[in-house]
Structure formats: structure tokens, C-alpha cells
Specification:
Blueprint: E1 12-17, H1 26-35, E2 48-52, H2 81-85, H3 93-98, E3 137-141, H4 150-154, E4 160-162, E5 169-171, H5 181-185, E6 191-194, E7 199-202, H6 207-211, H7 217-220, E8 227-231, H8 238-245, E9 250-251, E10 262-265, E11 271-273, E12 279-283, H9 287-294, H10 297-313, H11 319-325, E13 333-334
Parallel strand pairs: 1-10, 8-13
Antiparallel strand pairs: 1-8, 2-3, 4-5, 6-7, 9-10, 11-12
Length: about 350
């Protein structure tokens, strides 16, 4: 069923520039260490970084979602812990340390058992043919804190809600009975099940930090300065300028109709090469693939990025390029007019 969602006073949002992601996973480590390193959430990654084109995490999440193209709820799937999430496995650290290097009988580090899948299993595996058109890029993902959350609609206990002050989507775990309908319904598969406490769990957008005017851990710790955090309605902040003014930040799978509040600046790419190694003028990342991720607006966004980049090459001013370059990392985060980022 569909519940009426009270419109929040403001909506906090995030923009990520995929042209700057290093694939270093610092964001994932910062999130994991802060929020879900205990039993029950060992397989959960509220923030993860995927290599695309790739299978993602959980595996094939784009194919096992719980929304129709028209945005209606459909019976989705709870990903399998072994084949789609991948259990956290142990490594043979002790035996590696114990082996005698001098004797030449060295044991290499490897996982115990025979794991079949896990986060970043297909990392750095791309598409295309080297050297003509091979390509890949990184895409960080977290809960989109949607305007119309599928997880909220799917919960019969009404334990999922949007905060009035900032639009962050949260789970009241005292109400949750662990039915996992929310996991099925979320087409982005960013709702997890804590099997130790038997309740739903998800990204809380570092809510305690937001309340203090401090950016979420994944954004604050990003060495590439690719994340921007602020409110959708703040015309002086980076979110409004990137999403509304310049329109280069677009949501992932907008066809789900949920109104995601995490946006992406799509990746540009070098030109393909012909058989003689000469540039063809065609980008290595196919436009059709990017449109399958971000919808038809990606073409306009890439055109704007190209135009503004060329302006800077000619020595002309470009507000957009100044924002995306992020000369001062404090400018990436505008959460309150009086708040100041602290180290």
C-alpha cells in the first residue's frame, strides 16, 4: 500500500562527481567503521563503490529491484547472502606470517574457504576492447533518501519515515518486525537486514553530524573532493547550483519515480581509437549505457560539462568548473549558514 508522506521542511541532498572518483573506497571504510562493523551488519555496506560496467553490489541489483518503470511497487527480491551480497570471509593471515620466508616455502595471502562473490569482486573490470574503446568508471552508492521512498510504502508496520527537518529517511527499529518487505521494495537495494537484531537497517546520512552542520563521514573523508552536501532549496549552495542551475547533476535510474536526493555528475571519457590508433571523436563510454543509468538528461549534462570545460581551456570564467574543481573543500559542504566544517 502507499502511505501519504508529509513533505519535509527542507531536503538534504548529495551530489557526486564521477569524473573525480578514485575508487579508493575511503568513503566505504569511513562509513563501515562508524556505523556497521558489528555482527549482523558484517555484510552490509551502506556506502559502497562499484566498478561500471559491472554487476554491482549486491550482484545484479539493477535487475532485482522492486519498482516498475512507472514507479509502482512490485514484489522484488531479498538478495541472497552467499551469491549476491557475499559473506565476509576470513584470510589466512596467521599461516602467512608463520611461514618461513628464508626456506622459500612462502604461503600467499588468500581467503579461507571458497567464496563466490563479495563487494568489489569485479573491481576494475571494464568493457570494450583494448586499446580501441576499453573503459570503466567508479560509482559510489548510498541510500538516496528518496522523496517518495519505496521502502516506506512497503512497510506494513509504518516503521520507516522521513524526518520533517531534513528529509532523511530513517527506520524506527522499535516498530520494525523484520519482515524485509522494505528490502524487496527498494530498487536500489540500499535497505539491509540486520540478522542479529532482526530489524531493517540503512544509511542514516550521518544524521547526528548533519544536526551539527558537519558533512557525512563518506563525504568528509573523500580524498577526491567529489562529494557535495547541502540542501536542495539553498541557491547559494553547491547542490542547488549543480542540480537546478547548471543541471549537470542527475539522479540514478530516474524512471523508478522515487525522486532520489543523491545526484551524479556523469563521467566524461576520452575518445575511442580506430585501427590505426587515431582518435575517432566517439567517447569510450557509450552514451546509450549512460542513458540506461541516468536517463535522457545525461546527454545535456555531458554537453554542458564539455562546453564549460572548453571555456576554462580558453581562459574564460566558469562557475561550474570552479565548483567541480573544489579548490576549497569546505565549499563542498553547505549545511547551515552559521555552521563551520571542523576537522
Amino acid at each position: 500500500m502507499k502511505y501519504e508522506i508529509a513533505k519535509p521542511d527542507r531536503q538534504v541532498a548529495m551530489v557526486m562527481d564521477l569524473n573525480k572518483c578514485l575508487g579508493c573506497h575511503t568513503c566505504s571504510v569511513a562509513c563501515k567503521k562508524m556505523w556497521n562493523s558489528d555482527a549482523g551488519t558484517d555484510y552490509s555496506y551502506w556506502n559502497n563503490v562499484e566498478t561500471l560496467p559491472g554487476k554491482g553490489f549486491p550482484k545484479h541489483w539493477q535487475e532485482i529491484g522492486g519498482r516498475t518503470d512507472e514507479g509502482e511497487i512490485k514484489r522484488g527480491k531479498v538478495p541472497n547472502l552467499d551469491s549476491e551480497y557475499g559473506r565476509a570471509w576470513e584470510f589466512n593471515h596467521k599461516s602467512v606470517i608463520a611461514t618461513d620466508a628464508a626456506s622459500g616455502d612462502k604461503e600467499w595471502l588468500k581467503p579461507k574457504g571458497n567464496p563466490k562473490w563479495g563487494p568489489n569482486w569485479d573491481e576494475d573490470e571494464g568493457a570494450g576492447n583494448y586499446p580501441q574503446d576499453n573503459h570503466y568508471f567508479y560509482m559510489p552508492r548510498l541510500c538516496n533518501h528518496c522523496t517518495e521512498p519505496a521502502c516506506l510504502d512497503a512497510c506494513p508496520r509504518q516503521s520507516i519515515y522521513k524526518r520533517k527537518e531534513d528529509g532523511i529517511v530513517l527506520v524506527d527499529q522499535d516498530k520494525c518486525h523484520g519482515y524485509r518487505f522494505c528490502v524487496e521494495a527498494c530498487p536500489y537495494k540500499k535497505m539491509y537486514y540486520d540478522y542479529q537484531r532482526q530489524v531493517a537497517a540503512k544509511c542514516i546520512f550521518c544524521m547526528p553530524r548533519i544536526e551539527e552542520g558537519v558533512a557525512p563521514a563518506c563525504a568528509r573523508q573523500c580524498p577526491g573532493r567529489l562529494r557535495f552536501v547541502g540542501f536542495r532549496d539553498d541557491p547559494s549552495g553547491p547542490i542547488w547550483k549543480l542540480v537546478e542551475k547548471h543541471k549537470v547533476a542527475i539522479p540514478l535510474h530516474p524512471q523508478f519515480g522515487l525522486g532520489p536526493n543523491v545526484f551524479y555528475v556523469p563521467p566524461m571519457s576520452p575518445e575511442q581509437l580506430d585501427a590505426q590508433g587515431r582518435p575517432t571523436g566517439e567517447p569510450r563510454i557509450p552514451l546509450a549505457y549512460l542513458e540506461s543509468l541516468f536517463g535522457p538528461d545525461v546527454k545535456r549534462a555531458l554537453s554542458t560539462l564539455e562546453t564549460e570545460r572548453n571555456k576554462r581551456k580558453r581562459g574564460e570564467a566558469s562557475e561550474l568548473m570552479d565548483i567541480l574543481i573544489a579548490y576549497n573543500w569546505n565549499d563542498n559542504f553547505k549545511l547551515d549558514a552559521t555552521a563551520r566544517e571542523v576537522i
